[in-house]
Amino acid sequence: MSLLPLFSRGADRAAALATLERDLKRGLETVERAPASPERERAIATLESAARYLRNRDAAEPGPAGRDDDERCLSLVLSARETAPSRERLATRGLLGTAPYEDADPGWFGVLWSWLTRPRAPFRSRPRSASGAISFADDAVVALAADWGTGCASSARIAEAIRALDAPHAIHLGDVYYAGTEAEVRDKLVSAWPAGSVSSFTLNANHEMYSGGHGYFDVALRAPAFAAQGGFSYFAMENRHATIIGVDSAYHAQWASLYHRGALDADAQMPWLRAVGRAARSAGRKVILLSHHHGLELDGTPVEPLWSQIADALEGGPDIWYWGHVHAGAAFAPRRSGGAVVRGRCIGHGGVPYAPIARGPALAWAEDALAGDPDEPRRARNGFAVLRFADDALIEELRDEDGAVRWTERTPWRG
Questions:
Q1: Burial of 408 (0-12, 13-18, 19+ CB in 10 A)
Q2: Which of residues 86, 117, 148 is at a domain's end?
Q3: Domains in the chain, number
Q4: Can you list the positions of beta strands (E) in 35-185?
Q5: Looking at 57, 83, 117, which one is the last position of a domain?
Q6: Would you state the pLDDT for residue 86?
Q7: Which value, in Å, is the radius of gyration of the alpha carbons in the chain?
Q8: What pLDDT, on the 0 to 100 scale, is given for residue 105?
């Protein structure tokens, strides 16, 4: 069966073929610029095979040797072309275009090959001897960024702004693009991360899992910058006022949906999270949760199964929950959940281009300002978060890519 009729639905066939050929060429150029790796070579071979099928599309049947293989490769490319952008768009907040990390960036083609071919790295459960929280100073400053591992200019500016803070602790909430391969993790995370003067941490995310999590577990977690994490993908930190808990919402997310919806495992993380949360509550500390995946959609709809898992483990939920994954900057209005009042924060605007966010009823604030980017005038400001621990309160700041405070809130430790 020929794939060519698929190209002509609702559009002129010749124009559709020309567009696909152009995208394949751009895809090859994008992937060829990536660092050498087995995934890069396989992606190049797949794209070249798909392009060969198009060049030979008018050959008389039966086709030339290898035509069936070329047609299968074109099927993979077409699937990536349809699947990756829709997964990245997340509530239609992405930008339709072919620039790096926009929805039609041909570099996404390389994601599909890694996703289909690489087995998952082993998950590492914390032993009882390593299950406790790490102490940090009562007056600490903690910088948070998510979806930051792009290697693009706005991510670099965010790194400069975090370094200027001289924060003792810096935490990445995950996503190294395109597929979190070993080379991408080395180049876009480990070598570029604005490490805290005391410690740094990094969470697992869906893009890291596209290549089986090998770049995350075998490169990031073994890097000296992230030594405080002890090689595990979930962790806890505590001081007199609060417990910060980071969870791995990616490893046990559904494979068939490209790890799009976060989930925790029942065997290791759920009992650990429950125990850490109870210890924090019994000591009168606030609970600040960090995950890559989102707990709420931008309209306030809970995202399952992660929302219910967190609510179950933390007796309604954390006091404050920071996440990435959705390419937006937003602070949610307080939401009652069981016996808790949860304040959600989305900081998935660490580097990927996205459109300004309209503030709906579920949001206390949303980043609706344009970045003034001459290369992409439709782009909203990227940014990051800062947590300042004072004697009487937690001070939250959502900042833009140049370090300017865009939103702030003060939460007393008591009451």
A1: middle
A2: 117
A3: 2
A4: 134-135, 141-145, 169-172
A5: 117
A6: 38
A7: 22
A8: 56
Q: Which of these, 57, 37, 170, lies nearest to 113 by C-alpha position? A: 37
For residue 317, give the nearest of 303, 336, 293 by alpha carbon: 336
108 & 138 share domain: no
- The encoded tokens of residue 283 equal 């000591």
pLDDT, residue 64, reads: 45
Task: Indicate the residue type of 50.
Answer: A
Place of tokens 């910060």: 244
What CA–CA distance (Å, rounded) separates 379 from 323? 21
Check if the beta carbon of residue 6 is closer than 8 Å to that of residue 78. Answer: yes
Q: Report the DSSP pairing between strands 383-389 and 363-366.
A: unpaired
100 shares a domain with 182: no
pLDDT single digits (tens) 276-333: 999 999 999 999 999 999 999 999 999 999 999 999 999 999 999 999 999 999 999 9
- What is the domain extent for residue 74? 4-117
What residue ranges of the chain have pLDDT lower than 50?
A: 1-11, 60-65, 79, 82-93, 95-96
| Global confidence as pTM | 0.79
Identify whether 177 is preceded by a cis peptide bond (ω within 30 of 0).
Answer: no
Question: Three-class SS of residue 267?
Answer: coil
Share of the chain above pLDDT 70, in %: 76
Q: How far apart (Å, rounded) are the C-alpha atoms in residues 14 and 12?
A: 6
